[in-house]
Design brief:
This protein is of the alpha/beta class. It has two domains: 2-161 and 316-351, Quinone Oxidoreductase, Chain A, domain 1, CATH 3.90.180; 163-293, Rossmann fold (3-Layer(aba) Sandwich). It has helices spanning 42-48, 101-104, 153-156, 162-173, 188-199, 214-220, 231-236, 254-258, 281-285, 299-312, 326-334; strands at residues 2-9, 16-23, 30-40, 68-75, 87-90, 93-95, 115-116, 136-140, 145-146, 180-184, 203-208, 224-227, 241-246, 261-269, 290-293, 318-322, 341-345. The protein binds NADP nicotinamide-adenine-dinucleotide phosphate and zinc ion (ZN). Zinc ion (ZN) binds at residues 41, 43, 66, 92, 161.
């Protein structure tokens, strides 16, 4: 065991503050990583504030962070894929049973005993796992991703959650080239959804509550922008979409977006509001539309997404912050004031 500097929250109403945590020594199959950047996902905020208490109650202290990019500092004797100095990433998953049907299908995120990067039972040290708001992390090599060397590192970190969470449902929906694809909410996930949908040739339309994000939406790859608070703008597009990705983190009227779909269209929820969303059955019945959900992606698909980003030079648009600004960043996330992902420069932790 060794000590690592970190930022943790002691309770649902406590700010994140400097802390020191234990990390395990690398076992045979482990990779030890010095963390360079960690993205700030809205899930970090939901967890710190225990907003998902009904589904995944938070165990304190909590060290969030599941958008990790860093350099390998040490590997266990049985590790084959990585060596010291390699550039790697870690997303939302750090372990699974490797034998259940989901694991065999390369969908480790649905393994009944998967271990999430933070706030999951820690099989090695007891207590819960601690995430990437820290100097270093130790992870089984199967859950470590190879990161292309040609990309901006601060912008790579968010690919490990926001990237795969939007890439996976877009790929699963099939060939979207030339199709009308909507992205609801232009935050961390939403702006990656726009980039991927554009990269796969869709006609991308952003639904935003923030009129001030219009220019950025167009720059990021949208062909049209709808201010969702304006009923007239919404009405014009009713019944016209093939696929919509809903990334909204708070309560909102999904029926308004279902009504945007054409016959057989699909809306996939990736946003995870803490309260149930009322569903008007008629919105689905007319047009035989479907509503689905999607959770991050498997490890193989995450690697595929990173390789795709390396090839097409895709990263998140980030505002790099020192860890000392994290509480301010959370307040801004709540106000939808993010362009379009905060990425923590972990060198800032050294001064703590
Ligand atoms: P984020 O950066 O805060 O972006 C969310 C965006 O939703 C906001 O920027 C805002 O965009 C829009 N929005 C916020 N409140 C709204 C409201 N009341 N009505 C309509 N739109 C609203 O969050 P994120 O990190 O992208 O995460 C989004 C959600 O996905 C969170 O719930 C997170 O926990 C979840 N998530 C799920 C997965 C998964 O695997 N399914 C993975 C990661 C995250 P505009 O300003 O454009 O309106
Ligand atoms: Zn996330």
């Amino acid at each position: 065991m060794y000590k690592s500097k970190a930022y943790s929250a002691a309770g649902a109403t406590s700010p994140l503050a400097s802390d020191v945590i234990n990390r395990r020594e690398a076992t045979d199959r482990d990779v030890q990583i010095e963390i360079l950047y960690c993205g700030v996902c809205h899930s970090d905020l939901h967890t710190v504030r225990n907003e998902w208490s009904g589904v995944m109650p938070t165990v304190y202290p909590v060290v969030p962070g599941h958008e990790i990019v860093g350099r390998v500092t040490k590997v266990g004797t049985a590790v084959k894929k990585y060596k010291a100095g390699d550039l790697v990433g870690v997303g939302c998953l750090v372990d699974s049973d490797r034998s259940c049907p989901s694991c065999k299908d390369h969908q480790e995120q649905f393994c009944p005993s998967s271990t999430f990067t933070y706030n999951s039972p820690d099989k090695h040290l007891g207590g819960v796992t601690y995430g990437g708001y820290s100097e270093s992390i130790v992870v089984d090599e199967h859950f470590v991703l190879a990161v292309p060397e040609n990309l901006n590192l601060a912008g790579v970190a968010p690919l490990l959650c926001a990237g795969i969470t939007t890439y996976s449902p877009i790929r699963r929906w099939g060939d979207i080239a030339g199709k009308k694809v909507g992205v609801v909410g232009l935050g961390g996930l939403g702006h990656m959804g726009v980039k991927f949908a554009k990269a796969f040739g869709a006609h991308v339309v952003v639904f935003t509550t923030s009129a001030g994000k219009k220019e950025d939406a167009l720059r990021l790859g949208a062909s049209e922008v709808i201010i969702s608070r304006n009923p007239d703008e919404m009405k014009k597009h009713a019944g016209s979409f093939n696929f919509i990705l809903d990334t909204v983190a708070a309560e909102h009227d999904i029926n308004a977006y279902i009504n945007m779909l054409g016959r057989g269209g699909n809306i996939t929820l990736v946003g995870a509001p803490d309260k149930p969303l009322p569903l008007f059955a008629f919105s689905l019945l007319f047009g035989r539309r479907t509503l689905s959900g999607s959770l991050i992606g498997g490890i193989a698909e995450t690697q595929e997404m990173l390789d795709f980003c390396g090839k097409h030079n895709i990263t998140a648009d980030v505002e790099v912050i020192p860890i000392q600004k994290i509480n301010e960043a959370y307040e801004r996330l709540v106000r939808s004031d993010v362009k379009y992902r905060f990425s923590i420069d972990m060198a800032s932790l050294k001064s703590e």
